[in-house]
Amino acid sequence: MATLQLKSLSMHYSAKDKALSDVSLEVNAGEIVGLIGPSGAGKSTLIRCINRLNNPTGGQVLFKQQDLTNISGSRLRQARRKIAMIFQEYALIERLTVMENVLSGRLGYVSFMSSLLRKFPGKDVQQAYALLDRVGLLEHANKRVDALSGGQRQRVGIARALAQNPELLLIDEPTAALDPRTARQVMRLISEICAEQGLPAIINIHDVNLAKLFVQRIVGLQQGKVVFDGSPAQLNDDV
Ligand code: ADP
Ligand code: ADP
Asked: ipTM higher than 0.90?
């Protein structure tokens, strides 16, 4: 059974502005999907509809067979714990340390804020160190995020997302703010970690060449519709 199933998903910001029309898509365990398409095609809207940062106007989002389109409150929060996001501009807490940012993913906002005043549980700190080691930031654990480079910040974002023990990663333009070399390093790290953990991911990538390098399945959106779904090699044949 697919981890994620989108069934005829639609999102209309207004009667005229149909950001998504009838999008159907399945993502299986271990699959990394690169979302490509021109600006305004609906890539961000698609990602935001999955964890309900946007409310779809039609269709269904099934995550491990649970319909996320009609839940709210604690059930929605519970589902969101399993669906981690990585953002273009990192969305880190700049004045806190690398370690604290990773722990905020691990503990969730409320437990994190109360632990800040006391002590973080040892087993959570252990796990955070292991993640920082994996993303190559162990020696920077106690630095404030605002002292890091862009590439380092995005690696903190990756570690924070993984600290949630997610079952799905949603990644919105993770390399848009990075130089080409750093962008490739970040994409390589994301694709390696997803492969190691069998973790499915949807990555909105503006740069088609970067998608072809690191992603086995590409979904092309245009004017809110899926116009391509296949391998990088098939994409080359099509254009
Ligand atoms: P992409 O990520 O592919 O650039 P978006 O999902 O951001 O595309 O946008 C898809 C369409 O929805 C565009 O026509 C855009 O103008 C519109 N749109 C996006 N966000 C909003 C919003 N908050 N209100 C109204 N229209 C929006
Ligand atoms: P990465 O190791 O992620 O590829 P860079 O090559 O961009 O990082 O940066 C190398 C070093 O320069 C890092 O150790 C970082 O601390 C420092 N550095 C880069 N950009 C900044 C910045 N904007 N502010 C502070 N330090 C920076």
From this structure: no
